[in-house]
């Protein structure tokens, strides 16, 4: 017996909650740091979130087609390269988006992306930890026959 598997509905709630909270937390910081309106910062954060979700799906589909070894067997180096290329793609796309959207320099957009990355890593760790604890409280120790 093992813990009840995560349902598709739970995965959707997890992903949407993650992205919405990230937008709510990051938009005021972007607005303040770049002296732009909250509407522009919020809209940019939302679009960057959507770009990130789309990139996640496209990138991982491409990786799965090109690199056929099951992920459970990936080495640490493979995982590291996978993560670096994934983040480089997000930073590249979102940096160019920020330059266009906010009418800022490439350097300002790069610094914005670095700042966002510094925020998103701990946010991801704590969001997932909190979500898992909340899920455990709500779902409990329900089990499924596997």
Question: What is the secondary structure topology, with strand pairs?
Answer:
Blueprint: E1 2-3, H1 8-34, H2 38-66, H3 76-102, H4 106-139, E2 143-144
Antiparallel strand pairs: 1-2
Folded structure, characterized:
This protein has 146 residues and is mainly alpha-helical. The chain has one domain. The protein has four helices and two strands. Strands 1-2 form a two-stranded antiparallel ribbon. The N and C termini lie close together (6 Å).
Keywords summarizing the entry:
mainly alpha; 146 residues; 4 helices; globular; 2 strands; 80% helix; two-stranded antiparallel ribbon
As a percent range, the share of strand residues is: under 5%
> Low-confidence parts lasting 5 or more residues at pLDDT below 50?
none
Distance between the termini: 6 Å
How would you spell out the order of helices and strands?
EHHHHE
User: Quick one: how many beta strands?
Assistant: 2
Structural class: mainly alpha
Average pLDDT value? 83
Q: How many distinct domains?
A: 1
Radius of gyration (Å): 18 Å
Instruction: Note the main sheet.
Output: 2 strands, antiparallel
Number of helices: 4
Apparent shape: globular
Measured as a percent range, the helix fraction is over 70%
Major β-sheet strand ordering: 1-2
């Amino acid at each position: 017996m093992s813990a009840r598997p995560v349902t598709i509905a739970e995965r959707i709630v997890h992903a949407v909650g993650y992205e919405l909270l990230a937008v709510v937390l990051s938009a005021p910081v972007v607005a303040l740091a770049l002296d732009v309106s909250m509407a522009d910062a919020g809209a940019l954060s939302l679009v960057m979130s959507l770009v990130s979700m789309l990139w996640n799906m496209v990138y991982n589909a491409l990786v799965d087609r090109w690199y056929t070894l099951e992920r459970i067997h990936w080495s640490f180096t493979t995982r590291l390269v996978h993560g670096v290329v994934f983040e480089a793609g997000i930073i590249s796309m979102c940096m160019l988006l920020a330059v266009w959207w906010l009418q800022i320099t490439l350097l300002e957009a790069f610094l914005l992306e670095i700042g966002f990355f510094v925020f998103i890593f701990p946010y991801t760790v704590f969001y997932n930890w909190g979500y898992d604890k909340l899920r455990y409280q709500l779902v409990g120790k329900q089990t499924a026959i596997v």
